[in-house]
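Hi F.,

I've been meaning to write this up properly since the lab meeting, where we talked about keeping a consistent format for the predictions we share between groups. The idea is simple: the sequence comes first, exactly as it goes in, then the structure tokens exactly as they come out, then a line or two of notes. No screenshots and no reformatting. I'm using this chain as the first example so we have something concrete to point to.
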Amino acid sequence: MKKIHLTDAKSILISNYMSTTSNDYTCIHKAHQIGVYKHLKQIGLLEKLFTYHNPDDLESVFNEYQRNVIIAFMHVRYEESSICTDDYIMKEYIHMLETNSLHELFEY
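Output, unedited:
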């Protein structure tokens, strides 16, 4: 398995998922975040990081951290100046979902 590099956006994305899905998390460390990531990857549910209920912004397809993780990946994968409109972000996400490659968002 490739090494997981948790940028601030990735870290916050996983922490938000953890705190939204369970009240048991009061202090979340990087080791917990990596453990949740590995678990979701192992059971094939990484899309949960992008589809959990976000009570702060019900109108948005992705919240700020979800968008930032995808945009950063697109900049690395394609080029620094790649166009990252909501439409392209959604197309990239759907493509990764269909090809079972969401893990690439965390392993570059």
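Notes:
The radius of gyration is 13 Å.
The mean pLDDT is 83.

If this format works for you, I'll send the rest the same way.

G.
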